[in-house]
Amino acid sequence: MAVHRQRAEAQDLEQLARRAAAAAVPRREEGLVVCENLVRIFQTEGVEVQALQGLDLAVAQGEMIAVIGASGSGKSTLLGILSGQDVPTAGSAEVAGHDLLTMKRRDRLGYRRTTVGFIWQQTARNLLPYLTAAENVMLPMTYTGVKRSQRRARAEELLDLFGVAHCRDRDPDELSGGEQQRVAVAVANANEPRVLLADEPTGELDTATSDEIFAALRRANEDLGVTVVVVTHDALVSEQVQRTVRIRNGRTSTEVLRRVETGEDGVEALTAEEYAVLDRNGRLQLPAEYTEHLHMRKRVRLALENDHIGVWPDAAARQAKSEAESAGSGDVDSGPISGPTPEAQPDANSSAADGVSGQA
Ligand SMILES: Nc1ncnc2c1ncn2[C@@H]1O[C@H](COP(=O)(O)OP(=O)(O)OP(=O)(O)O)[C@@H](O)[C@H]1O
Fold first, then answer.
1. Band of the pLDDT at 52, cuts 50, 70, 90?
2. Which of 35, 40, 42 to mutate to test the pocket of ligand 1 (most atoms within 8 A of CB)?
3. Are residues 100 and 218 in the same domain?
4. Which run of H or of E encompasses 229?
5. Which distant-in-sequence residues (6+ apart) come within 8 Å of 273 by Cβ?
6. Residue 318 pLDDT greater than 70, yes or no
7. Which of 51, 130, 205, 324 has the highest Cβ tally under 10 A?
8. Within-domain flag for 164
9. Residue 247 shares a structural domain with residue 317
10. Is the same domain home to 163 and 58?
11. In terms of residue numbers, what domain contains 318?
12. Ligand 1 pocket test: which of 55, 77, 79 has the largest number of ligand atoms within 8 Å of its C-beta?
């Protein structure tokens, strides 16, 4: 009987994990940008670097998201793939219906010219130095057969939209860094792309100028309807979007969702909630500060409750934590960081499946 119950409960846990995974990851048809289990391995002189290790990401049409993460976590590699400049090793990546793994060389050029717009961190890399601001904006349209009169009109419109109409006839070296980047946003929008990709576009600029660039990206998103993915180290920038995705070790690890909520007093306040990303296979990354705080290493114990899943340190982790505390390592808080009460912890001698204590 007990064995039957354990099996049924383990199945409940699997079923719940499967359902949660299916609900958490937007389906292919829901995203303009959809990456599933994306892998990029670089080989240099016999050394293999796994820059992306099964990354999942879906960005809805019209969304503006920030991508953050430590240096080397894979942000630029992801943008290189989405922009069509680099090809993934495995997995899937689709942007506006284009399959970036199987796309032919010729289609790739067309894709880079019309489907995506790109803004680099280095201001000098975005503009040709011997063309004026207006000529820089018109240039991408010459590759897509837009008539000369239309090119000029659109260039004027875009420079105006991003607040740099006064720079129209100046060369890039006659523009400030902020003006150059706003002209770069105009260039990236010249061929009406579906997705705008920006890799640290405010990285070389001061805070006030960064705000201007970010305002230009937001204007592109709101006024032109273009979907925006911006990689940034700048916390102030990432706080201005509805969704911030964190990449850790080549995979999306957490997401912060922000929304405006109206309190009982009628006052609107911005709330931000952090979520761990659950992939299709039910995998999630626990934040390092949580696992380190509880000395969790190789394995954890899971407990299915009615409305949540508890994650508990195993006996070795509990011992390591208590030793660290008695050695006075400064790790004095013995309770979990958040979550269920210690009473809900499963028996130390039972298996994870035994720890299933609620109903799915
Ligand atoms: N062309 C390449 N050849 C070999 N390794 C590479 C190449 N491009 C990136 N890498 C490696 O892949 C990993 C991810 O690099 P990536 O540039 O995507 O990180 P990042 O998050 O953008 O970092 P940063 O914030 O410093 O720009 C790093 O270990 C990097 O050294």
1. very high
2. 42
3. yes
4. strand 227-231
5. 256, 257
6. yes
7. 51
8. yes
9. no
10. yes
11. 284-360
12. 77
Q: How confident is the model at residue 176 (pLDDT cuts 50, 70, 90)?
A: very high
What pTM does this model have? 0.77
Nearest to 116 by CA among 83, 88, 86: 83
Same-domain pairing of 178 and 142? yes
Least confident span in 91-95, 116-120, 178-182, 297-301: 297-301
Ligand 1: centre distance to CA 74 (Å): 6
Which atom of ligand 1 lies closest to the CA of 247? 21
Using CB distances shorter than 6 Å, the residues near ligand 1 are 42, 44, 49, 51, 69, 71-77
The DSSP annotation for 266-334 comes to: S-EEEEEEEEE---TTS--PPPHHHHHHTT--S-EEEEE-SS-EEEEE-HHHHHHHHHHHHTT-S----
Cα 119 from Cα 204, distance rounded (Å): 13
- Residue 228 covered by a domain: yes
Tens of pLDDT, residues 298-316: 888 888 888 888 888 888 8
Mutate to test the pocket of ligand 1, among 44, 73, 78, 89 (most ligand atoms within 8 A of CB): 73
Q: How confident is the model at residue 187 (pLDDT cuts 50, 70, 90)?
A: very high
pLDDT at 115 over 50: yes
Report for 83-92, 203-212, 348-357: range of highest mean pLDDT: 83-92
**What is the spatial order of strands in the sheet that 268-276 belongs to?**
116-119, 195-199, 227-231, 64-68, 243-248, 251-262, 268-276
268 CB-near residues (< 8 Å, 6+ apart): 260, 261, 262
What span, in angstroms and rounded, lies between the C-alpha atoms of 119 and 70? 20
